[in-house]
From TrEMBL:
It holds the Pfam family MMR_HSR1. One of its GO terms (cellular component) is mitochondrion. This is EngB-type G domain-containing protein. Gene3D superfamilies: P-loop containing nucleotide triphosphate hydrolases. The keyword Transferase does not apply. GO terms for molecular function: GTP binding; metal ion binding. SUPFAM superfamilies: P-loop containing nucleoside triphosphate hydrolases (SSF52540). Residues 109-189 form the EngB-type G domain. Keywords: GTP-binding, Magnesium, Metal-binding, Nucleotide-binding. Signal peptide: none annotated.
């Protein structure tokens, strides 16, 4: 049986959760917090937190049994991660800057976690989902491949910095190799 998040959340909430809302009326859905979602009945909670669990049977179809498994973190681990991505007066989460070239990148002290991959696979959408509890951050996403052209830096308190990188492949920026290679070779954090 396929899990339909549109039915679990309601269509309007589902679309705003994944595609966001215009900045002028952006809101955070009440189920974006796993602590709020924990009050749902067990079946609905499982469908919300592990929507791909129905696909587990198909993952091993082409390979050895048990070779590929889905990651199902506990509610406690999700709560810890949620705390890391929830702003507070002592834990500021904000957009830092964008850089077309590495010499324009900010020099930050904390470690950097960069998201790199093929064009149009959802890197920016994943980052937007991570920052869903931070209403002041607008992570731009697009259905059009090659939308991200710069390195975008987001500070997550004193813990680390998230770097959204351009994708490679279809409609990659002309200077993609120069930007990404120099980033990966020279950034030490």
């Amino acid at each position: 049986m396929a899990v339909d998040l549109r039915r679990v959340l309601g269509f309007k909430a589902w679309t705003s959760l994944f595609w966001g809302t215009p900045h002028s009326w952006r809101f955070t859905h009440s189920l974006a917090s796993c602590m709020q979602a924990a009050h749902l009945p067990e079946r609905r909670l499982k469908a919300l937190l592990y929507p791909a669990s129905e696909l587990q049977a198909y993952l091993a179809a082409g390979g050895k049994e048990g070779q590929l498994t889905l990651f199902h973190p506990s509610l406690e681990l999700m709560a810890k991660a949620e705390k890391l991505f929830t702003p507070s007066p002592k834990h500021h989460i904000h957009y830092c800057s964008s850089a077309v070239r590495l010499d324009h990148a900010p020099s930050l002290q904390q470690p950097e976690v960069c998201f790199i991959g093929r064009s149009n696979v959802g890197k920016s959408s994943l980052i937007r989902a991570l920052f869903s509890l931070v209403p002041d951050i607008e992570v731009r996403v697009s259905k059009t491949p090659g939308h991200t052209k710069k390195l975008n830096f987001f500070r997550v308190g004193r813990a680390f910095t998230v770097v959204d990188m351009p994708g490679y492949g279809y409609r990659a920026p002309r200077d993609f190799v120069e930007i990404v290679e120099s980033y990966l070779e020279t950034r030490s954090k």
